[in-house]
Write a structure and sequence with these properties.
The complex is a heterodimer of chains A (about 90) and B (about 260). Chain A has one domain (about 1-80): 2-Layer Sandwich (Mth169, Chain: A), CATH 3.30.1280. Helices cover about 30% and strands about 25% of the residues of chain A. Chain A has helices at about 15-25, 55-65, and strands at about 1-10, 40-45, 75-80. Chain A has a three-stranded antiparallel beta sheet with strand order 2-1-3, covered by helices on one side. The N and C termini of chain A lie close together (about 10 Å). Classes of the chains: A alpha+beta (about 90), B alpha/beta (about 260). The interface between A and B is medium-sized, with 11 and 20 residues.
């Protein structure tokens, strides 16, 4: 069981890296790109395959307390059964 | 007056800061280790510049969970003085002891140069020996010094005179329009040219510029000897404030 966590700069927070990447894409001729925003992607691997409400609550708390800074970043995550030891038969991923 | 300077793994201005406090200012100064939760009875804790925990995840994000930070939070809650310089400012924001956050510089470059700062407010423990409108020359050296906070928070800090220093031109002026190009004097794109802010309790102050690098005449004299030790005013203000409070307390107890 893993959690895939995506952390993005909040709308309105300056993202100079995204802007620089966007300019590079334009310079290469990819004019269809209107905007780029750059964030972070983390994978958390768990000791077991539990995917209940408690796990969701704990990952949310990890995001709020450490992984993301609520002043400048938003986060979202999903729990994914990746077939690692301890994972049960495939259930619905969150 | 007793000072404590915290060392996190990756701090690199802790010794410079202690040198200024101990050898230039002549005050008792102790080193505080990040794994200890004992502040040794200091009057003011300084969180120095550097790259605590390699700046992993976000600058200051890991350092805020070290044992010393629990003690710093209790010290602050009890009215004790805390000064965060550069990475120390980032740690204080991450710890929630100061509002806002510091993100990547506008131009994506590490900036290492002198900047000019305007003193905005002096009724506080950190700039009380300055005059409002004073222009200081103090170096910055950071890659993530762009201060952001939501407009309501910035408005509140302006109303309560908690933005103590702002980036300005050498003559003290600033662009009137926030959306104007301010890259001639604002080194990182900080909102409203904020260089340093104080908490609502008025006992915690963080700033990106390095007062400890504009404090030792032996170093400043190398540039023609005409440079003032502007950074010293912050340390002297803190010492003055602590002395005054102590005098008031002893006068009160004699009555």
């Amino acid at each position: 069981m893993i959690a895939r966590v995506v952390i993005m700069p909040k709308r309105g927070v300056l993202d100079p890296q995204g802007k620089a990447i966007c300019s590079s894409l334009h310079a290469m001729g990819y004019d269809e790109v209107d905007d780029v925003r750059m964030g972070k992607f983390l994978e958390l691997r768990f000791v077991d395959g539990a995917a209940g409400e408690e796990r969701v609550a704990r990952v949310k708390s990890m995001c709020e307390r450490l992984l993301a800074n609520g002043v400048i970043e938003d986060f979202r995550f999903e729990l994914v059964d990746d077939g690692s030891p301890g994972d049960g038969p495939r259930g619905p991923a969150r | 007056m007793k000072w404590g300077v915290v060392t996190f793994p990756g701090s690199n201005d802790d010794r410079d800061t202690a040198h200024v406090l101990r050898s230039v200012l002549g005050h008792e100064t102790v080193a505080l280790w990040h794994k200890s939760a004992d502040l040794q009875g200091v009057d003011c804790v300084v969180l120095p510049g550097g790259f605590s925990y390699g700046d992993y995840l976000r600058c200051g994000a890991i350092a805020r969970f070290s044992p010393i930070m629990g003690a710093v939070a209790r010290h602050a809650a009890g009215g004790g003085l805390v000064l965060g310089i550069c990475n120390g400012f980032q740690v204080l924001c991450e710890a929630g002891l100061l509002p806002g956050a510091l993100v990547r510089n506008r131009d994506l470059r590490f900036v290492c140069r002198d900047v000019t700062l305007r003193v905005e407010s002096i009724s506080n423990p950190f700039t009380n020996l300055a005059f409002a409108g004073d222009v200081w020359r103090i170096p910055v050296k950071h890659g993530e010094g762009c201060y952001v906070a939501d407009p309501a928070t910035l408005d509140e800090m302006e109303r309560e005179a908690r933005i103590l220093v702002r980036y300005c031109r050498p003559d003290g002026s600033r662009a009137r329009d926030e959306s104007a190009d301010r890259s001639d004097y604002n080194p990182n794109g900080s909102a409203r040219d904020v260089a340093g802010v104080m908490n609502a309790g008025r006992n915690v102050f963080g700033l990106m510029p390095h007062p400890e690098h504009a404090a030792d005449p032996a170093i400043l004299g190398a540039e023609g000897g005409r440079r003032r030790a502007d950074g010293m005013r912050i340390f002297q203000s803190i010492a003055h404030w602590v002395d005054q409070r102590r005098e008031q307390a002893s006068a009160g107890s004699m009555r």
